[in-house]
Amino acid sequence: MAIPKVCGIETEYGILVRGGDNNPVSASSLLINAYLNAHTRNRVGRIGWDFEDERPGNDARGFSLDDALAPDIETHLVNAVLTNGARYYVDHAHPEVSTPECRDAAEVVVFDRAAEEIVRASMTAARQLLPDGAEILCHKNNSDGKGNSYGCHENYLLARETPFGRIVNQVTPHFVTRQIVIGAGKVGCELPGVPHDEVAYQISQRADFFEEEVGLETTLKRPIVNTRDEPHCDATKYRRLHVIVGDANMSEVATYLKVGATSIVLAMIEDDVMGDDLALANPVGAIRQISHDPTLQRTILLRSGRRATAMEVQWSLLERARKYERSHGLESVGESVGADVLRRWEAVLTGLEHDPDSVSDVVDWVAKQRVVLGFADRHGLKPGDARLKALDLQYHDMRPDKCLASRVGLQTLAAADAVRRAMTQPPTTTRAYFRGRCLAKWPADIVAANWDSLVFDVGRDPLRRVPMMEPLRGTADHVASLIDQSDTAAELLVRLES
Amino acid sequence: MAERTQKQKPAPSRTEEEAVVDAPATTATGDKLKAELDDLLDEIDGVLETNAEDFVKSYVQKGGQ
After folding, report:
1. A107 CA: distance to closest CA in chain B (Å)
2. CA angle B6, B11, B15 (to 5 degrees)
3. Is the CB of B59 less than 8 angstroms away from the CB of A374?
4. Is residue A75 scored above 50 in pLDDT?
5. How many CB atoms lie within 10 A of CB B5?
């Protein structure tokens, strides 16, 4: 049976300084430091990231490029671990939040929303540190409209024994077509040589940037299936599928369906019920064709020689998921969340098919398109007008007074108080609980943290590294009472050993 | 897609019937949607960056992952 689909999202936010020095690297550092100073007991840099086990160059196809690739992460930049179990850091030239490990899609939505609120709080805190009139703006998007892209990645736990070749073959049709449900929409096209009026509006932020079917890269020649083999847990038992092909969503339901439907698809692949018949003849061409056709009418070629629309591929995946629910159950993705995901997935496909406007409250690209078309119509604007691009950017604007996504009537899923709690408290359902609770209770005794370890300094002994190689150990059920009963970190370490 | 064709088969005739019966309601819903969109666009007129062209021009990001 499929193993539990522990999951999470990492989002690189767009960043811009207005009225000051627009250096994105220093602005990202300032933004994060401002938040840490204002809202956490971490002294800056006190709790560092432990790079001991980082191996971004390991390839799931069985070789390592660590010698050939420059290290992905610049270790001198701000890199904090928060008490909610998340990581908040500077990646390349962007502030990035990785949610803690979550047990299901509903939990991911709460922690992704909490990440947005952390970024908003950071922007407010940064204002105090900047000269009068200067401000840092953040956008939860994936492109600047000028050919530069930055990612919103998903991560899913898979059993090591699932053959990687099967994953690549069978998940690609979903990765290429799921954009019709979860695309965030984009004004214009960023492929070189494509004029504004040829692709005035497209479904996905990211589709223009994918050049390979499968590969290790994340910043150049981006592949639809990324092969980074860095499980951050017991590598003999698990894989972490690192998914780089999604858009950052403003719609909570879209985030929910992105993670929920993909978790189910991966569970089906793990249980080997998916089959190869949906394999695409040319995934890279197809992902662009689909994105460039908001009418959803264009067909793509399958390897079998058949042609199908993205909608037909999604219907077929949903039908298979329904069958899988009956034959295997959905425990691996959470029974009730899984059932709800299937219901909503079907509702979105039905809506897109019969009346796309009816899903403008859940589908980002439809919501954005409605505003862009309405605005262009009202003001008589032609494709390529800067005001339409401004609408696109402002859809993702993290400033509450400028954000358009919060004005277009999107449904919400996460309760406000749950989001507030999730800014500081970890999920109870994964090892993130242990990480977050320890950081909150003993910030002075933890010198470094990582996804799969905490390093304690309790004074008299050498540093003590506590490995956390099992994503589902260290939950509230396992360690809440241990942590509650320990007054000091030293006591906790003694209890953990006994 | 065999699975889908099966599932969707009854849909067209039902949709046609509903379209006839519900015609006035659909127009009313359409008017309501249009009014909502007009209100939203009024709001957006006030929220959009005053110098959209400069804003868009200045929005340059370094590529990330």
Report:
1. 24
2. 175
3. no
4. no
5. 10
